[in-house]
């Protein structure tokens, strides 16, 4: 479904993963990797469609599904970061710290998320009308997510790992995950496994809980079909 006659853009590769193997599905490094690639994949897919790349109804539907779930993960991660920063301030930095001040200021991210949520229904109704605006918003969001994750990894997370008790971190994570839409785990767990390097997958699967392995068996094939459609592999 054509939307313009301009030449197709050069696709940008997803941000490379930082060094260091992950060992389980709860590793924050794995979530960061998935957030970087997940936001970039939808941004690149929508950019291609805005420049006349084919988008059949199946691809359109699966892009809406995938993007909705990725946006939920971005919102959840922003809430998780705020919770961890608050816990860190309570424990050791009641007056605030430069690392936390640099990580603050969610206005740009919140704005990009809001615009993506507004643009997605138009794309769901009409590919030609919706793809250009959604592509621009998702590209901006992918850049913002990457920058925020860089800041967290360089400044906030080392302090959290050092000062916030594990039980408190786990409580914050549980509360955030409970706020996600019903059925989110059917997307998130295969999505995280997809972000593993081949050498990591055996260890990650071995350390996964029984419920997580059940979800992966149940949802893995469905997730793979969605991923292939998003990437345009099923034309």
UniProtKB/TrEMBL annotation:
Domain of life: Bacteria
Name of the molecule in the record: Hemerythrin HHE cation binding domain-containing protein
Native organism: Geodermatophilus aquaeductus
